[in-house]
Design a protein that fits this description.
The protein is built from 8 helices and 5 strands, in the order αββαβαααααββα. By secondary structure, it is an alpha+beta fold. Strand 4 and strand 5 form a beta hairpin.
């Protein structure tokens, strides 16, 4: 056969290889085509945006939750705060289920209420573990759904509809889209915070967050410092 034939054949192989590569890459990043979640509170018109990638079962996320409850009320008239899912399922077996519960409630207009309930239970569970108290909750349940149903009832949600959303591809795809977004930002653990797109890790304390946010406000949204403290990565808190 002629050299031109082999050259033509090689070109076809290269083209198909490139098509496969980009198609595979796209499907790996987000096979559903879903967009990341948009759970935002505060001043959405502000040029200062704080984003958390969190895991509802993560003990460090539980530690920072009450800190945020002190910080955010002071700043939500000046900044926006967004939460995105990043369940570390290799460390926290019920983390993905927790994210599903929050997203299901979100489809019924109660995302932040379920988000807060999950983290309040997180805080209580790990605090009791420190003192040796046995506390049963969704975190250590073999099947956490009955606990989530109880929370849904407390929030005034229709439990049948909540369960439909909880088990839906719509919820799973939203979580996967958040995780893809986090991976694209090189999130390594939870909680990880981004202030105007810059990874500031986990400032951990009220003063730590205030320092970062005040600096951003003073610099009209420009970020100059980076603080990274404890997050769940390759080890978990007992």
């Amino acid at each position: 056969m002629s050299k031109s034939f082999w050259g033509f054949l090689a070109a076809i192989v290269v083209v198909f290889g490139l098509v496969f590569f980009f198609t595979h890459k796209s499907s790996t990043n987000n096979s559903s085509g879903s967009k990341p979640t948009q759970h935002i509170e505060g001043d959405t018109s502000s040029n200062i945006k704080l984003v958390e990638y969190g895991d509802y079962q993560c003990p460090y996320c539980g530690e920072v939750y009450p800190v945020l409850q002190q910080v955010l009320p002071k700043y939500l008239n000046k900044i926006s705060f967004q939460f995105r899912n990043f369940p570390l399922t290799n460390l926290h077996p019920n983390a993905y289920a927790g994210a599903r519960a929050a997203e299901a409630a979100g489809l019924m207009g109660k995302f932040w209420q379920m988000h807060n309930k999950l983290y309040e239970e997180n805080v209580t569970y790990y605090s009791d573990q420190q003192t040796g108290t046995k506390f049963n909750t969704w975190i250590n349940a073999s099947n956490p759904l009955p606990e989530f149903d109880s929370y849904a009832k407390q929030l005034g949600l229709n439990v049948t509809q909540f369960n439909k959303y909880y088990n839906s591809n719509r919820v799973n795809n939203a979580i996967e889209a958040d995780m893809t977004a986090g991976n694209n930002l090189n999130v390594q653990g939870t909680p990880t915070f981004f202030l105007n797109g810059k990874n500031i890790g986990n400032p951990a304390t009220v003063s730590g967050f205030e320092k970062e946010i005040n600096a951003a406000i003073a610099n009209n949204g420009k970020i100059s410092s980076t603080t990274k403290t404890k997050t769940s990565t390759n080890q978990t808190k007992k």
